[in-house]
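Service request form, structural biology core

Requester: graduate student, group of Dr. S.
Request type: structure prediction, single chain
Budget code: on file
Notes: please return the result as structure tokens.

Sequence provided:
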Amino acid sequence: MMAYAFPKEEYVARLKRVREEMAKSGIDLLIVIDPAHMNYLVGYDAWSYQNTQALLVPANASHEPVWAGRGVDAISAHDTTWLSADNILAYADHYSDSHEHHAMEAIAAFIRERGWDKGRIGYEGDVYYFSPKALKVLEATLSDAEFVDVGLMINWLKTIKMPREVEFMRRAGKIADRVMSVAVDTLRPGIRECDYASRIVQAQLEGTPEFGGSWPNGVPHILTGQRAGIPHAPWTDDVIPRGASTALELGGSYLRYNAGLCRTIYMGTPPQALVRLGSVVQEGLEAALAAVKPGVTCHEVWSAWQRVLGRAGFEKKSRIGYSIGLNYPPSWRDHTASLRSGEEVELKPNMTFHMICGMWSGDGTKSGEANYELSETFLVTDTGVETLTNFERKLFVKP
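Core staff response, request fulfilled:
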């Protein structure tokens, strides 16, 4: 068996916290769908979330959770989790992409076999990997149960990281720093966007000499040329021209723990409007970081950034950050706390955030001023803040 990422005792402690939350809502069985939450509770790690799979967590602490999924993926459960063999269940392959039967029927049968088909069954109703059809099949097949959406129950629990998780986040930050170093060094006029992206992805997978990288949670965002003001546009096979700014949103991932990092590069002599905007964004980001400490609300951190923008005559209405950590594609976000106006969530030690301060077209900038991006991934400490990414903060200028 492959050694899983954390000692079994740590997984058991996480499972205990989840069961305490289940008890508050009277949940008898929790059906965990999010692959990050399977990883969080039992260590399961595989590119298998395109298939129907679930972790079944009974309220009774004397019972282990049960992983249920496609047969070809069961070996990953044996390889990466601490579960006993009897609690790794595989459904027949004829359920895969079947037009007659849904694989959730097989998982419902596993639930019935364990006697967990009555009472209140909780499910994660707002995750990427759980379809309306899957829920309908469960409700129709387990008609004696009451189904309850538990929302972001596990998301909130994993928003506060344990000490070893913090160390994994630090490693992800170091990988992100190296990825950005490669990106800055590689960029040159005439390189195709797709070739540039390939160098970045290679660096993400290589990681550092000390520890390798995981597959990235998202593609590199390369804001350049005609799409310089579009935050999530795909790269193309166009060449990157001279006299252009290129904003980069990249990241590093270590054992599925993620850190984001953004910087902006200009090839040639940058216009003064861009230099000024870059200075304002950097001042705003540093003011927001300085506001971070336990007990401060997300709104207060956002306000520190907004005050700097306001003095310079800029305005940005969207959030400037979000909780980040253990997650799988398509997003590295925890979907819990956001650094934005009106959000009264208080910061607590061992929360980790990606603070992304960018000004794009439509953010209130004037022509020629938009399209500047700067970010850090940080940890809330007992007294303030620790940046987990440590790449030079400036507008990078390449002749």
